[in-house]
Amino acid sequence: MKLSQMMVLCAALGQSVYAAEADFVLVNGSGAVAVTPTQARLTLVFSAQQADVAAGKQAVDAQSAAFAALLSKHQIKASDVNNAPLVVYPEQREQKLDQFRIERSTTVLIRDLALYPVLLEGAAKLGVSQIQPVELQTADSEQYYTEALQQAFQAAKAKALQLAALSGRKLGKVNQLHEQSSAPGPRFKGMMMAADSMPVSFGQQQIRADVQVQFELINP
Fold first, then answer.
1. 64, 75, 139, 192: which one has the fewest Cβ atoms less than 10 Å from its Cβ?
2. End-to-end CA distance of the chain
């Protein structure tokens, strides 16, 4: 056998031995950052039940227009408001379709949380039919999620180091890395309405991140 062939064979054998001796440790890590919500997304529904669809549409349009004026009064931008198309549902009573429910939902992004109880009170005075649970958000969710992601990786690495030490080996390079948490920018469900005598307090929420990491284990 030629020298060059022997060198290739030795290299191949060396790789096989390395692959056989290579071990890995798989760990999970979590991170969380406490944040105070800075804005809220509120969805409410104006509706009317009428035998005459046109009359019901007129009533709902009047409510929606009055709420739009309230939003404008508090300097909420039109780009932060979404008015859904009008929806008409037939209402059956005593086997007769003699009534219709006409409704329109409006979603508004409230960037100043101090306006939240004001808008709820205004909507209630206008006869709002439904107020969905508010979605609390933070404007810097991407930044906080990145911080939580870094914490998650460091937590996973700390576990891997401990396991490597217990097995009498050292931690090598990262072999696989999986982000297990959902996309950044979690939203939090909050209260619908508060009593007039109680101040609105949203407290703090957590932005979480979870990872799964596979590290190589190296013999000392």
1. 75
2. 35
pLDDT 10s digits, 38-84 = 999 999 999 999 889 999 999 999 999 999 999 999 999 999 999 99
Spatial distance between the Cα atoms of 157 and 161, rounded to a whole number of angstroms: 6
Looking at the domain 39-137, which fold is it?
Alpha-Beta Plaits (3.30.70)
Per the structure block, which two tokens stand in for 107? 């979603």
Token reading at 45: 């529904």
Annotated domain spans of the chain: 22-36+140-218, 39-137
Query: How far apart (Å, rounded) are the C-alpha atoms in residues 137 and 187?
Result: 5
CATH of domain 22-36+140-218: 3.30.110.170
Nearest-CA neighbor of 103 among 127, 77, 70? Answer: 127
Amino acid sitting at position 173: K
Structure tokens at 49: 């039940």
Using alpha carbons only, how large is the chain's radius of gyration in Å? 30
| H/E stretch holding 180 | none
Burial of 113 (0-12, 13-18, 19+ CB in 10 A): middle
